[in-house]
């Protein structure tokens, strides 16, 4: 029996979400109107006066040290207390944002190392410190945290050293497949999700919505056994479509678009999901939540959770909520509390917040997805490729173009067999040796591989497969493309 599931906003120390990016293949008619009165109440109170968000204790950045360990480099950031952080990299640097952290001494330090050029330390805002590790050439990295003393350690690792031994629950193969215009290389990873030695989950570049990293860098950061690139993304790496990580809704589903999900019981699911969100105010008004970690639509509010990143965008009218209690009204940017969230509306809809909320009032945030399969992790993409063991590509229904369907290109797909085994696939393309595949050819391939359900993910230059720390396919750009998300095979909990 299908029911709605309330996705409870939990909070973590790392982050995700942003940007009003909508797929160019989606029409503009999917918005629904907002405030719904759910019970009789007295008239709304007058708009409250603006106030400054209450801040937690700010840790002091005591030192940032470089330690040369031969081929591996180490950066140790010492603090006098706990702080949140995120790391993200490009081909030119590794960036570490540390928030609720202050008094970092601005400096630039030259480094003699095969992969690292220099360190730069900046106090970006009074509560946000930033450390750049400038690179001479692309590298991978891992982060570690100590609490006694409080330290964040970043290891800079040469790509050739980032190898990982595979368990028996993973099997990789490569072969060539015929297409309508020649042949192309196909890379297949078969995964047994029932094995306690592994877990499957999507991850975001830099663990935040605004970020882009290569698949191999993301895999190394998580010490992943294997992985493929994830779903579509917009500017600055912001994901387009549904993202759920460890039960936290980070990005809402796009209408009609197919999603790959893993339930809390470990069952894979491929299908479309719908989102419904409301904020229930003290006067029993249900405000329509039109976006999660995205700018709001007209007549709706948006919620920014800790998974968005350390700072909100520049907001015109906003409310800081901690433990479901309204703590402050503000405009501009602010740190998102790890034990709360931020609500915002367009300036024309400011009365949605100022007319229904007051300082110290308790509110309820309800974010729901349908159908209810008790989702633990989910990654949006599309279109569907296989349903009930038959090739089925409803590209037009999911607002993809005929050209997108018919073009032979590098592709990435995920599916599962009747026995529940997962199939990760990348197809090389855009080269003299590799034609790539149309979506129909990819669907037929997934059926031949034994998939009873399958879907397409982002492809083209994004198509990448990493197995045991190595890139096994040939990215069509000649190098890896930075992406917004990845689907990883991680080691299971000990």
SSE blueprint:
Layout: E1 5-6, E2 36-37, E3 59-69, E4 72-79, E5 84-89, E6 93-99, E7 101-102, E8 107-110, E9 116-125, E10 128-135, E11 140-147, E12 150-157, E13 170-179, E14 182-191, E15 198-204, H1 215-221, E16 226-229, E17 243-245, E18 248-251, E19 258-263, E20 268-272, E21 274-280, E22 285-292, E23 301-304, E24 315-322, E25 325-332, E26 340-345, H2 351-354, E27 364-370, E28 375-380, E29 384-387, E30 390-391, H3 402-406, E31 411-416, E32 422-427, H4 439-448, E33 453-456, E34 465-467, E35 470-471, E36 485-491
Parallel strand pairs: 3-7, 22-23
Antiparallel strand pairs: 1-27, 2-22, 3-4, 4-12, 5-6, 6-10, 8-9, 9-10, 11-12, 13-14, 14-32, 15-36, 16-34, 16-36, 17-18, 17-28, 19-20, 19-28, 21-22, 21-27, 23-26, 24-25, 24-26, 29-30, 29-33, 31-32, 31-33, 34-35
Overall description:
Helices cover 5% and strands 43% of the residues. With 494 residues, the chain is mainly beta. The strands form 6 sheets. Strands 1, 2, 21, 22, 23, 24, 25, 26 and 27 form a 9-stranded mixed β-sheet that branches. The chain is globular, with a radius of gyration of 23 Å.
Largest sheet: 9 strands, mixed
| Number of separate helices | 4
Give the overall shape.
globular
Q: Averaging pLDDT over every residue, what do you get?
A: 88
Helix content: under 10%
**CA-CA gap between termini:** 34 Å
What's the alpha carbon Rg, rounded to whole Å?
A: 23 Å
Give the beta-strand count.
Answer: 36
The secondary structure category is mainly beta
As a percent range, the share of strand residues is 35-45%
List low-pLDDT spans: 1-55
């Amino acid at each position: 029996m299908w029911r709605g599931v309330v996705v409870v906003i939990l909070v973590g120390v790392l982050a995700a979400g942003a940007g009003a990016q909508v797929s160019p293949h989606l029409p503009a008619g999917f918005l629904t109107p907002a405030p719904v009165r759910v019970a009789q109440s007295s008239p709304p109170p007058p708009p409250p006066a603006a106030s400054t968000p209450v801040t937690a204790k700010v840790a002091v950045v005591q030192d940032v040290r470089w330690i040369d360990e031969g081929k591996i480099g180490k950066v140790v950031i010492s603090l006098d207390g706990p702080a949140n952080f995120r790391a993200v990299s490009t081909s030119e640097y590794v960036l570490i944002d540390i928030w609720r952290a202050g008094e970092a001494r601005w400096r630039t330090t030259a480094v003699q190392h095969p992969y690292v050029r220099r360190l730069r330390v900046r106090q970006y805002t009074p509560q946000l410190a930033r450390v750049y590790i400038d690179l001479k050439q692309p590298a991978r990295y891992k982060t570690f945290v100590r609490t006694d003393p409080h330290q964040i350690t970043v290891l800079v690792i040469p790509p050739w050293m980032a190898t990982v031994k595979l368990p028996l629950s993973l099997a990789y193969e490569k072969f060539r497949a015929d297409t309508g215009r020649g042949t192309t290389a196909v890379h297949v990873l078969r995964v047994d999700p029932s094995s306690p030695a592994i877990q499957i989950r999507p991850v975001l570049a830099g663990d935040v919505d605004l970020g882009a990293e290569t698949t191999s860098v993301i895999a190394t950061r998580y010490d992943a056994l294997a992985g493929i690139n994830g779903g579509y993304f917009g500017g600055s790496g912001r994901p387009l479509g549904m993202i759920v990580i460890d039960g936290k809704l980070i990005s809402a589903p796009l209408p009609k678009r197919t999603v790959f999900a893993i339930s809390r019981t470990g069952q894979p699911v491929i299908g479309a999901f719908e989102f419904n969100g409301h904020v229930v105010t003290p006067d029993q008004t249900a405000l329509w939540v039109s976006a999660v970690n995205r700018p709001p639509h007209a007549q709706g509010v948006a919620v920014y959770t800790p998974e968005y990143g350390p700072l909100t965008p520049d907001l015109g009218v906003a409310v800081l909520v901690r433990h479901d209690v309204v703590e402050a009204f503000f405009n501009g940017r602010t740190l998102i509390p790890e034990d709360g969230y931020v609500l915002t509306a367009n300036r024309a809809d400011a009365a949605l917040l100022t007319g229904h909320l007051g300082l110290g009032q308790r509110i309820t945030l309800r974010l729901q997805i349908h159908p209810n399969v008790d989702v633990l992790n989910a990654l949006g993409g599309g279109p569907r490729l296989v349903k009930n063991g038959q090739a089925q590509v409803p590209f037009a229904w999911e607002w993809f173009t005929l050209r997108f369907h018919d073009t032979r290109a590098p592709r990435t797909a995920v599916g599962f067999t009747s026995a529940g085994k997962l199939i990760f696939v990348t197809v090389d393309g855009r080269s003299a040796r590799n034609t790539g595949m149309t979506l129909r050819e990819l669907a037929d391939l997934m059926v031949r591989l034994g998939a009873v359900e399958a879907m397409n993910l982002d492809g083209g230059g994004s198509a990448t497969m990493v197995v045991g720390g190595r890139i096994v396919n040939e990215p069509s750009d000649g190098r890896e493309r930075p992406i917004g998300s990845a689907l990883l095979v991680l080691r299971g909990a000990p």
